[in-house]
Amino acid sequence: MWSFSNISDNIHDWLSANFNATWTLIIEMVIAGTLVIGLFAMLGLILVIMERKVSAWMQIRLGPNRVGPKGMLQSMADTIKLMVKEGMTPNGADKIMFNLAPFVAMIVAMLLLAPIAFAENFQLWDLNIGVLYITAVSSIMVISILMAGWASNNKYSLLGAMRSGAQIVSYELSAGLSILAIIVLTGSLQVSEIIESQRNGWWLFKGHIPAIIAFVIFIIAVTAETNRAPFDLAEAESELTAGFHTEYSGMKFALFFLAEYVNVFIVCGLGATIFLGGWMPLHIGNWTGFNNAMDYIPSSLWFFGKTFFLIFVIMWFRWSFPRLRIDQLLNLEWKYLLPISMVNLLLVTLMAIMGWHF
Amino acid sequence: MSVGKYIKDVWGAVRSLGRGMKRTLYYFTHHKEIITQQYPDNRETLNLPERFKGEVVMPHDEKNEHRCTGCQACELACPNGTIKVVTRFDMIDGKKKKAIDKLVYHLELCTMCNLCIEACPSDAIKMAQTFEHSVFDRNKLTKILNNPGSKIMDGVE
Amino acid sequence: MYRETQIIAGSSHPSFAEVGQPGEFIINVGPQHPATHGVLHLVITLSGETIKKVEPHLGYIHRSIEKMCESLSYRQFIYVTSRMDYLSAHINNHACAMCVEKGLQVEIPPRAQVIRVLMDELTRIASHELWWGAMAMDLGAFTPFFHAFRERETINDIMEETCGARLTMNYMVPGGVMQDIHPDFQKRVKEFIQLYKRKVHEYDEMVTGNIIFQNRMKNVGVLSAEDAISYGCTGPTGRGSGVSCDIRKLYPYEIYSTLEFDEVLETGGDSFARYMVRIREMNQSIRIIEQLIDNIPEGEVLTKTKAVLKLPKGEFYTRVETARGELGVYIVSEGGTNPFRIKFRSPGFSNLSVLDHIARGSKIGDLVAMMGTLDLVIPDIDR
């Protein structure tokens, strides 16, 4: 059957037959790197047009409909515009840091792609601490925002960067705790094992109410972590014009923009992996016929479908809610989400010990 | 704060957010509510009300005649010097008769206040429904309202 | 020239100075900033995220409307006032026309009075609709802005049909209104009322009832009734603090004394109270329109006045309730064809002056919310 894992295996076999082990590895790394960059560009284009269409329909508008069929090439045109624009560096800026910051944001987003399982047996790096790796690396994101805000030598940027520093650091806690709730159930940090443990049902359904609470908290926390509305205080456009990227233009701005979308994709991919079974098809208990029918849908479609559904939910938040204030944002985390997720973690642990879950 | 109130608060908050999300989802799925007008495309079907104040024009009939007597009421009524009436004296039947040479209209100064139309005693000028006035050269916005060679309609004093 | 450059460079003017007290952080919000809805310039002294001082700088859109009016005749100067508070252009024109009528001592026909009130209330709704959308946008919710514009556009279409313009109508003239209403006017207004009633619950779902919104608004920017009076706050800003200041009730003009409507009062004094006043005021305006729309008396719409208007020597003052508060028009006449001196008491100016008082101690995000609830229209403040 046609699948990503078959293709990758065939390529690997062909390369092993024709080259020695070192060259095989090098060529495979080059291919993987190219694919990651390609995926990056594709994600940027798709997610931008998706966001614009979602927002337009929610706002009773038509959205982009001029470039290409149904406006689908609009983000391509925008990219070209951003590429030919001058990427200015302000006079008073710390030039090295200023120019480095978008690349740090970009590199973090790229690193995060490594342990994501896009399809059955199709994963860049199935390291045994995959989930920990994602939570650890994603916190480097805040450094790029702080760098950008500080180096811009702009007061709005600084305020925005400081806000996002406080925000990302605190929301990491509840995101981590809600992931931990599932880790307790699976007993493994390895992405492939987490997915494997959901062969008989997704954790969202198997874990009873605690898993649902963990899922809701996870979605809220990652929305905040990726600086999306209603938690977009770092770039709160009505307060701080554009926050940490006020001074950025051209491709440097585009990198921040892209990194935001890729981050959204990754956290949604992570959410899909942990709570919704990653590439695992929807299986319900003993309905063999139904389960077999579901197996015919390719695993990559399952993964991308779930991920894009979660992305849609996050976009839906963005276009429905007003923004929180900074103290309310921190209150929400420290007074509501963190206590709830701690109690929830206890419940899940109890559940795991007693074996109450399916 | 009691635990019961805490849970009630959280539930109330989630409910209020849910209502908002339901509303946006309604519009996301109901595309017939879209109100966008695709302007340059719908130019043919664009229906401007007849009172729309777009530009001052002077209607001429098929004999190239207008109704302007050159009384300068519009010039006096205009708050910002948009209209200049340049008159000349024609010799008709041995009598000197006042007539307009040019009615200069500065569209770039006009605020479409309608005062000149109200002031005109002979209904010589009216508002047109055009609104696409942008040009590359501002001199093009200075218009002469009467057609070349036009003269006053018979019977209009 | 040199001195001007210095001011722009920011060294000579004290409040532009970069150094504040230790631990203070001074940022300039505006003159170009998404939250100021125009060219208002606020110099904010911050301590972290907390506001210590707000200093509004005015004059970026000062067009000297009052001085301009002195060189225009009594018919001509009314159109300029549309450009003050452009969101309640009709009401501004109404105030000026009424002041001139007071000087001329002409009665305007009953039909014109009803039309004027109808137009005023439609304008009030349109203005509040725009405010509602812009206010939600200040708080980061974009979607309500477009939804508000759907209803507002309907009113603008009605205006366009009858007055010929969507924003700066110049429809009220001394002696009545410029033209009779369009034959479709009543039908279109009824359609609008139906649309409004069908959609008004969405305002509650999307903004008013939203927990995030309520937390952003409640107990933020509290203005006590005493302060509201001493700062001269009128309109929804004053009524949100429990100050009864609706000119339509206190000093009824035109036919307002015969109409049934409530003066909307909230006692909270916070941003949410000001918000609720406007939302409830829209419903009251709908109520007024419903009373009048089927009862427009027949007859003339314009009293015959002289071709050249001359006010007798003296001073004339009228006030009306615009969407933002009390607008006063004060004309000093020397008996000529032009006003000797005109002064507008604009509601926005007084309402803005309270910003520093209510913003101290709150966060930057709150400042934006407060500016939203004050409903500032900068051309109205600068004139």
Provide keyphrases for this structure.
heterotrimer, B: 157 residues, alpha+beta, Alpha-Beta Plaits, 3-stranded antiparallel β-sheet, C: 383 residues, mainly alpha, Cytochrome-c3 Hydrogenase, chain B, 2 domains, 16 helices, 8 strands, globular, disordered N terminus
Furnish the topology, listing elements before pairings:
The complex is a heterotrimer of chains A (358), B (157) and C (383).
Chain A: H1 4-18, H2 21-58, H3 74-84, H4 95-112, E1 117-119, E2 122-123, H5 130-138, H6 141-151, H7 155-186, H8 191-196, H9 203-206, H10 208-225, H11 237-240, H12 250-275, H13 288-295, H14 299-318, H15 326-354
Helix pairs in contact in A: 2-3, 2-12, 3-12, 4-5, 4-6, 4-12, 6-7, 7-10, 7-15, 10-12, 10-15, 12-14
Chain B: H1 3-29, E1 55-57, E2 65-66, H2 73-77, E3 83-92, E4 95-106, H3 115-119, E5 126-128, E6 142-144, E7 151-152
Parallel strand pairs in B: 2-7
Antiparallel strand pairs in B: 1-5, 3-4, 4-6
Chain C: H1 2-9, E1 25-29, E2 41-47, E3 50-57, H2 65-70, H3 77-81, H4 89-104, H5 110-138, H6 143-163, E4 172-173, E5 176-177, H7 185-208, H8 211-217, H9 225-231, H10 235-240, H11 247-250, H12 271-293, E6 314-321, E7 326-333, E8 341-345, H13 347-353, H14 355-359, H15 364-374, H16 378-382
Antiparallel strand pairs in C: 1-2, 2-3, 4-5, 6-7, 7-8
Helix pairs in contact in C: 4-5, 5-6, 5-12, 5-15, 6-7, 7-12, 12-15
Describe the structure.
The complex is a heterotrimer of chains A (358), B (157) and C (383). Chain A is an all-alpha fold. Chain A has helices at 4-18, 21-58, 74-84, 95-112, 130-138, 141-151, 155-186, 191-196, 203-206, 208-225, 237-240, 250-275, 288-295, 299-318, 326-354, and strands at 117-119, 122-123. In chain A, 70% of the residues lie in helices and 1% in strands. Chain B has 157 residues and is of the alpha+beta class. Chain B folds into two domains: 3-35; 55-152, Alpha-Beta Plaits (2-Layer Sandwich). Chain B has three helices and seven strands. In chain B, strand 3 (83-92) and strand 4 form a beta hairpin. The mean pLDDT of chain B is 83. Chain C has 383 residues and is mainly α. Chain C folds into two domains: 2-57, no CATH class; 65-382, Cytochrome-c3 Hydrogenase, chain B (Orthogonal Bundle). In chain C, 48% of the residues lie in helices and 12% in strands. Chain C has 16 helices and eight strands. Chain C has helices at 2-9, 65-70, 77-81, 89-104, 110-138, 143-163, 185-208, 211-217, 225-231, 235-240, 247-250, 271-293, 347-353, 355-359, 364-374, 378-382; strands spanning 25-29, 41-47, 50-57, 172-173, 176-177, 314-321, 326-333, 341-345. In chain C, the strands form three sheets. Chain C has a three-stranded antiparallel beta sheet with strand order 1-2-3. A three-stranded antiparallel beta sheet of chain C has the order 6-7-8. Chain C has a two-stranded antiparallel ribbon with strand order 4-5. In chain C, helix 4 (89-104) runs antiparallel to helix 5 (110-138). The longest helix of chain C is centred in the first third of the chain and has 29 residues, at 110-138. The two termini of chain C are 25 Å apart. Chains in contact: A-B, A-C, B-C. The interface between A and C is medium-sized, with 29 and 31 residues.
